[in-house]
Amino acid sequence: xxxxxxxxTATTRARDVLDRVVKAxxxxxxxxxxxxPEATSALGVAFVEVVVRPDAEARGGVPRVVVARxxxxxxxxxxAAFVDxxxxxxxxxxxxxxxxxxxxxxxxxDLDAAGAMFTASHNPARYNGLKLCLPGARPVGQDTxxxxxxxxxxxxxxxAPLGDALRGGLQEVDVLRPYAERLRTLVDLSANRxxxxxxxxxxxxxxxxxxxxxxxxxxxxxLPLGIVPLFFELDGSFPNHEANPLVPANTATLQAEVVRRRxxxxxxxxxxxxxxxxxxxxxxxxxxxxLTTLVGLREARRVRDEGGEPxxxxxxxxxxxxxxxxxxxxxxxxxxxxGHSFIKAIMADEGAAFGGEHSGHFYFRDFxxxxxxxLAAMHVLSALAExxxxxxxxVGDLDPYVRSGExxxxxxxxxxxxxxxxxxxxEKFDTEALEVDRLDGVTVSRWTSPDPWWLNLxxxxxxxxxxxxxxxxDAETMRSVRDLVVAALDSTxxxxxxxxxxxxxxxxxxxxxxxx
Length: 516
Fold this sequence. Notes:
Elements: H1 5-21, E1 27-30, H2 37-58, E2 64-69, H3 75-88, E3 92-98, H4 101-111, E4 114-118, E5 127-134, E6 138-139, H5 142-157, E7 170-172, H6 176-186, E8 195-200, H7 206-213, E9 225-230, H8 252-261, E10 265-269, E11 276-279, E12 285-286, H9 288-305, E13 311-315, H10 321-328, E14 332-336, H11 340-350, E15 354-356, E16 362-364, H12 373-385, H13 391-394, E17 402-403, E18 407-409, H14 414-428, E19 435-437, E20 442-445, E21 453-459, E22 466-472, H15 475-490
Helix pairs in contact: 1-5, 2-3, 2-5, 9-10, 9-12, 14-15
């Protein structure tokens, strides 16, 4: 039977809705304009039908999904709709309530259940979203089930009949204490020297998890830490600052408080607390690439002590210092695409112990291969407390190069913009001396020259932006290459002026920072 015009219109409308919110490795959109209960209910059904149930049957089990949410006001309604959809498709649902994203990943691994986390991470209050995983916190991205689930959700929203599965059950679970206990077994802070630590939770989920893991809120013994809390009240309207510590303005209060309190360091978490940023005792931000190297060295040493050969992952945007320093210690490093679903899959394939991203995501094999800002923070605390030097000296040798910070440009055609930059670089430099790869966007490198540099141009997976990163062995070279690239990009947006951001110059309009 031919489709009616009404059914075609409904399908087109549903596809348009999901096309806007389904990204490369998660779901994210404005509530309710782009993402509402109807869509999340359909996604709940679809996730169980096309992802969870086939996986459970292949493993000889039954479909189970643990569902959690962050503190956003829209979370309870969206999560309830998803739960209803998942149960109608026959899944037993474990409701974990308020959680950080890494707490949800822990629950997925510990309870051996698929996972669904309602969060929009660092995005403003009007957004919400959904991160999905299979049992054991195995990643679900566009090519590993998310795309298929979105396609089935389109059918459901268009009026397609649902299956006839028996309705699944519902059980509340509390995983906060088991989560805290697991982290403390991975990094033991109990015997270290006492540290004073300022923590900015940004009114996000770290306000729940920090007191449980680093304090006594979960009933665990006290640690030698003096925690100075900033913005621990859970508030999805983010009244104090955006929950995105990648943006320097959002850590300004933390930086000042570290200096004022004469603290040993500061920690800043994003909204769902899966990312962590660090401030040293001078109030200066420590680049996530430096933390990748620091934690990578610790994890490599642990693997060797256990008789293994360490493998450490880093994404295409991290500093060249990561593979240089780790490689000098005989550690095999693997460069990956940006994004948690890609990194988790490669971590499993390579048997990697650890992986780090420029955006403050840190992944641990011993944490189900998932990312945990809290676990990364604990590694930094342990590394600092195990010796007597201040943090600035501890990490000083791990940061030899000069980076631009991430520059964001809104362009109509990212592919055309990339080619414009490549053409400009070809006119400026000897093309035979340029190495080009397309692992993630376009990376151009001239690292073997007397004035080495590299840059990456990459379309954001979550926002309509072209992201630019430049690194060089010295500041003058970095600025020269950065300004050449920005000028080339400016020429592509004269008719449709985009927002250009970078953290270290007033010559270009205001700063915005990306995190994917």
